[in-house]
Write a structure and sequence with these properties.
Length: 408
């Protein structure tokens, strides 16, 4: 019986790059001040085989990738540093209980009648081609806002190619106001992977280029090259990955699956070389998971399971409770209570100073970057181990050449 892999939405990169080049210097400066470091995602080449293989090892219970005995997951602080936007209190929120048409026409400064005609001829969706046409007819300030809208809809929160959902104007408006969108990106990444593993949805609708950069930052053979003296707009993890991506090993899908199911700890860099922080949000309340707000859903996040990614010695994490706070947003419904509760827990999820090891590590503690009791006692329950495709490992082209040479 065959298996199904996660799918990735086509991104019209050429059109978006052309729009960017058309922006004035002032408009580009404005857009970058709102978008952070995400623009170079347009130049990230998707490594489909590794990302499809990795998705199979996602665990919805832990919101981590379970790779043999090891766990890794993108963290808020890693994404915040890579994106170049601080984890402020003011989170972007989904477009619920609002008229999306009103929000859309107000953001684009067009007439409602004109917008309704466009929607009527396109199954109540705004075609990207209309947005491009409007872009070239608009003034410099509006062009920058249209570009942000298109970029966030097609690159950051990608669901369908060639169409812009009306509710995305509400997200773009919040981005233009300088609000925190890092949480939403991480949330949608987790939700997409969880829905894939639960057979609810097969399309990844978060920035796959960002997730790819994060993974290879922790893959020792590549991540050791990701040195950045000081993160800035010009030099940051995304631009560094863009520069080095030609060095990625082009392994077969089957080889990645085989690697992920039982990897040696030496395969990973537990802490990305470019990632150095002294404080982080690791839990709220009594070591409870952090609640995350996305644009389509809410979910939980368990950074205490991956504290070694911060340089902290990994200890046995708290036991997992039920994920009782997962809400899938439906347009027109009232979610004020849930969003208010999440906002309150986010405020309570205060940053805490990290306790880094003071003495030189030896043996397994150094190899695993964990405390001895974690190595001895921590076990991942069997039912949490991800199911992955049973595939035959194909030899690399070099291995085939060497085998042939030996025979002849």
């Amino acid at each position: 019986m065959g298996h199904i892999d996660i799918r990735f939405v086509y991104i019209p990169k050429a059109e978006l790059k052309q729009m960017w080049r058309h922006l004035s210097i002032d408009a580009q400066t404005y857009a970058l001040s709102r978008m952070g470091h995400v623009l170079p995602l347009l130049d990230i080449e998707l490594q489909t085989r590794v990302m499809q293989a990795l998705a199979h090892f996602w665990c919805p219970y832990t919101t981590t990738f379970i790779l043999g005995k090891h766990e890794l997951t993108p963290t808020l602080e890693e994404y915040s540093l890579a994106i170049g936007k601080p984890l402020s209190i003011n989170l972007i929120c989904p477009c619920v209980e609002m008229d999306p048409i009103f929000i859309f026409v107000e953001f684009l400064k067009i007439s409602e009648n004109k917008m309704r005609k466009i929607l009527k001829g396109n199954c109540h969706m705004c075609p990207f081609s209309f947005l491009v046409e409007l872009f070239y007819e608009s003034n410099s300030y509006l062009q920058s806002r249209i570009f942000i809208l298109a970029f966030f809809r097609l690159v950051i929160f990608s669901l369908q190619k060639d169409f812009i959902s009306l509710s995305m104007a509400w997200i773009a408006r919040q981005v233009c106001s300088g609000m925190n969108f890092t949480n939403a990106i991480l949330t949608e990444t987790f939700i997409s992977l969880t829905r894939f593993k639960q057979n609810k949805e097969k399309t990844f609708h978060a920035p796959v280029g960002l997730l790819q950069m994060w993974f290879f930052s922790h893959y020792a053979k590549f991540g050791s090259k990701m040195t950045i003296p000081r993160v800035s707009q010009e030099e940051n993890p995304i631009t560094k990955f863009q520069e080095l991506q030609k060095n990625i090993a082009r392994l077969f899908y089957s080889k990645w699956i085989d690697l992920f199911k039982d990897p040696s700890p030496k395969v990973f860099l537990w802490q990305a070389i470019w990632f150095q922080v002294s404080k982080a949000r690791l839990y709220h309340g009594e070591r409870e998971p952090i609640l995350l707000l996305g644009i389509t859903d809410m979910t939980q996040y368990h950074p205490l399971r991956v504290v070694r990614q911060y340089g902290v010695l990994q200890d046995i994490p708290p036991p997992l409770g039920p994920n009782t706070f997962q809400v899938e947003f439906v347009a027109g419904e009232n979610y004020r209570t849930e969003i208010k509760h999440l906002d309150q827990t986010w405020v309570k999820s205060k940053t805490r100073s990290l306790s880094l090891p003071k003495e030189k590590l030896e043996g397994k503690e150094k190899c695993y970057h964990t405390k001895a009791r974690y190595i001895k006692y921590h076990l991942i329950p069997t039912h949490m181990f991800p199911k992955f495709p049973l595939v035959i490992v194909k030899p690399t082209r070099q291995a085939e050449i060497e085998t042939y040479a030996k025979k002849t």
